[in-house]
Amino acid sequence: MPTTIEKLIGEELEVRVKGLGAQIRQRRKAMRISATTASEAAGVSRVTWHRMEKGEITVTIGAWFNALAVLGLEFGVGLTGNATRAQLASDLPATIPVSIVLADFPQLAALAWQVQGVATVSPGEAFDIYERNKRHIDRASLSPEEETLISSLEAVLGGAGGV
Question: Is there a single domain that holds both residue 51 and residue 113?
């Protein structure tokens, strides 16, 4: 009788994959993206997406990498050699915050005039605001932080058009 992959995989790996699945689910929910939308963006079926969020080890590595890319996450394999966590963290690209404070991004705040009484928006809402109003964005007065936010939103949530 052939050995199944589950028998070849150690318990530690199983725990790590379940943790990765939990992170993917948490990030997706924080970004207020439905599982169906995320699976379509990643090019996998809804069933495969569900299996990833459950942490099933039989999902292909390509599906995992697509899921991470859709959510703006990167795969890391841990520390090697003399690298410290602080050094590795400084090398990571900017990520999208779970909640975007309007006051921190003047152009976004100006474009979000219809959102009254709200101090923060989700990444999806911010992207939609930038996308709908891209002709009104004053590119010359964008701060470096706001340029980074727009680029990150485009990379994770954007389509072919871009902001």
Answer: no
C-alpha 24/C-alpha 17 separation (Å) is 11
Query: What tens digit of pLDDT does each residue of 77-122 get?
Result: 554 445 444 444 444 445 677 778 899 999 999 998 887 788 888 8
| Same domain for 69 and 105 | no
Short-list 118, 116, 120, CA closest to 104: 120
Cα 40 to Cα 31, 35, 36, 57, 69: the distances in Å are: 16, 9, 6, 21, 13
- Full residue range of the structural domain in which residue 37 is found: 5-75
Q: Would you state the pLDDT for residue 123?
A: 83
Are residues 130 and 108 in contact, defined by beta-carbon separation less than 8 angstroms? yes
In terms of domains, do 71 and 116 share one? no
